[in-house]
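Justification of resources, computational component.

The compute hours requested in this renewal are based largely on the per-chain cost of generating structure records like the one below. Each record pairs the submitted sequence with a full structure-token output. That output is archived, and it is also reused by downstream analysis tasks.
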Amino acid sequence: MTIKKQIILLASLIIAIPLFCSFFIFFHNYASSEQRLLMKSTKEVQKIQTQDITKEEWDELITTIRLLPHHIQTIGIYNNDTIIYSTMPEYEANTKISMDDIWKYTNKTSNEYFYQFTAININEKNVLLISRIDRSKRNFKKIHNIVLNFELFLVVIVFICILVLIFIAKSIFESINFLQEKTEQIANGDLSEQIKKKNQESKNEITSISDNLEKMRVSLLEAENRKNRFIMGISHDLRTPVAVIKGYTEAIADDIIVDKSEIKQSLQLIKTKTTQLEEMIDTLINYTRLNNSDIREKMVKKSITNFFNDYLKEVSVYGELINRKITTENLVSDNIELPFNEQLLHRALENLFSNARRYTKDGDSIQLKLHIEGSNLIFDMKDSGCGIAKEDLKNIFDLFFRGTNSRLEKGMGIGLSVVKNIISTHGWTINVDSEKGIGSTFSIIIPLEQE
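The structure output for this chain reads:
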């Protein structure tokens, strides 16, 4: 159940419980009232008020009195001394009676009967209607049992509402405490413990937030790992030329190298390593400048098929220069226009082609193909080189990662990370399929229907 629904239910129960209790009190008072049992049909009697009573009107009065339910016993006393109607066995009609006797008798039998007294005015003289019902009658017991059962039902409903109220409040507070604990854990830099609620059978806002927190924790952990790899990569790749420069500089300064030709060679080596160091620094600076927002701002909608066609023509002339068998194939005849950054896409393709050339030997083949599959435009770059080890495939796009085949090669492990960044920022996908000793295929998948 969502938090919104829980809060609505919580508010409803807070309102409903007092209403249930109020209704319980009202119903209990009404069910216990003697008036409830005796008021039925007496309204018909009260309507009869006249100044000049006739025989017909008296007959109507008697008829009205007889409208009372059969289980209610009644006597009508005219002028406070004459019984004009009676269904009570203790009293007979058309007999005289004193009001004192009536009061004494009703008080004496009040434990056995419920009594009701109603005064009716006829021709400016009173008719006192006394009604009663036997407390031990079966129908009253039945009503009383129904009342008790209903009261019990109300008590159970109120009790259930209170339990649900406690459960919802406990659930909300536990969820809030869970979020507070986990956000504090992340704020303190502890990314080792997985963020997952114990009971996630039912999806709500809290489980959604905890899932997002877990994704954020994983992203932060990956960023931390990338930062560590970045530092290790920088320290490893920059240390070598710095060590060479430092070593030869100290050797010259300490007169270890004194021969002019050796000094000249040492200075040339220092210059070479300085240039290498400068190139590494420039590469790092360019990578940090490769900002996703900058790429999106420079995207222009133009013919992407023309772009790939020009690139295929461009690389097809490289074969003789690099001693590779280069074949190109364009199976797309339609002109397709999409928003993209031409300069950066060309850079990504050049990085892929440079890798294909680096990890193939003289006489190996490099195949480039543009085609459509379903709703995607696909550009494949396939080579017959050394391939990529299976255990390296999942990490080849990571910054500073250098696979088994590339550790002896010149480079910093940034190229494929740049390619991945450019392709992903365009909203496209890049996949790699490779087998050791057979070759690799890099595929750029471009959706034709882009958001």
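The mean pLDDT is 77. The CA atoms of residues 309 and 330 lie 7 Å apart.
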